[in-house]
Amino acid sequence: MLGTTCESWRPRLPNGRFVYLLIGGLTMDLFSKRHRLVVAMLVLFVPLLTGAKGKGCQGPIEGGEAGPGGGGVAGGEPASCQVTGCSGQVCADEDVVTDCEYREEYACYQEHSVCERGASGECGWRATPELEACLGGGEPAPCVVTGCSGQVCADADEEIVTTCEYREEYACYKEHGVCERGASGECGWRATPELEACLGGGKPAPCVVTGCSGQVCADEEVATTCEYREEYACYKEHGVCERGASGECGWRATPELEACLGGGEAAPCVVTGCSGQVCANKGVDIVTTCEWLEEYGCYKEHGVCERGASGECGWRATPELEACIEAASGE
After folding, report:
1. How far apart, in Å, are the Cα atoms of 318 and each of 14, 136, 236, 323, 331?
2. Distance of CA 266 to the CA centre of its chain
3. Which superkingdom does the taxonomy of this entry point to (predicted)?
4. DSSP-derived secondary structure for 25-92
5. What does the alpha-carbon distance between residue 36 and residue 43 come to, in Å, rounded to a whole number?
């Protein structure tokens, strides 16, 4: 009996009284006072020996104090986070009083922010890529080539509207342009020598004497056979390697070089045309209109009429002449 629980050895009758009370009452009537005393003591102490306490068989409930409904006090949800501060720049549990000095970065919280309770349990702004970039803590948008003709280098998120009028210089950006973010933080074309030269704002590469016997004048090194000819010595003694009026590298047709090569002296180049705007071989009939253009004055002031590397007469492409023509034509 000592190994059982109070509920297992105390079956209830319909009237709610315990069996052991009935047995105790009958025993008291049948036995002597001594026996009645023993039975009464058993009736009183057996429940204590089997684990019953002053509260009956009800014991403490795990995790909290026992009660009529059982269980402890349930914890409540934490308060929600809210946007506060004079400029809406703070994310906190409650209203926060701040000064009203405005900063541009505060607009980032309004446009890209998410106010929430983080893993630490504290309220704060979610570190989204958009918010980080807006605050300056992330990578800026990449630079992209845009515009109707691909002539503009700008931020990827910047709206660019251009006309579709095409200009030859736009091809320079396609061939030589490098679209990147510069030291100033703005997108733009890298000022490479190739791009500058293509746009007309830089000097072309110098001409070089090349070939196995030094008989070639070109923009870059050229591979040739090493068969030697006597005329090659003429280039070494009398040759002037330069970029001619046509823009190509070649030997200047000097009288000395012409004579050495056995071709005799070529006819001199002369300035002709109604306004002196043409450089041509002497003795060649040149007919032009007499319409005056401002750029014609450039040939008179800065022009050098000579025979170029190609063997034809023309104006030497000096920086002064090119700058004057560009200014006069308004390009």
Report:
1. 127, 48, 25, 9, 17
2. 61
3. Bacteria
4. HHHHHHS-HHHHHHHHHHHHHHHHHTT-BTTBT--PPTTS---SS-S-PPPPPPPPPEEESTTS-EEE
5. 10
21/7 Cα distance (integer angstroms): 15
Say which amino acid occupies 18. F
- Whether 74 and 62 have beta carbons less than 8 Å apart is answered as no
Our measurement of the distance from residue 99's CA atom to the centroid of its chain's CA atoms, rounded to an integer in Å, reads 34
Euclidean distance between CA atoms 103 and 99, whole angstroms = 11
Q: Are strands 216-218 and 143-146 parallel, antiparallel or unpaired?
A: unpaired
- pLDDT tens, residue by residue, 155-187: 887 878 888 888 888 999 999 899 988 766 788
Residue 58 vs residues 2, 46, 67, 305: alpha-carbon distances, Å: 18, 17, 10, 122
- Name the residue among 184, 129, 187 with its Cα closest to residue 155: 187
CA distance 166 to 173: 13
pLDDT per residue as tens digits for the range 131-160: 878 887 656 778 999 988 899 999 887 878
Burial environment of residue 156 by CB neighbours within 10 A (0 to 12, 13 to 18, 19 or more): exposed
The CA distance from 20 to 39, in Å, is 10
Structure tokens at 306: 């000579």
Residues 279, 250: Cα–Cα separation, whole Å: 18
Tens of pLDDT, residue by residue over 60-114, are 434 444 444 444 434 567 788 999 999 899 999 999 888 888 888 888 888 888 8
pTM (whole model) above 0.70: no
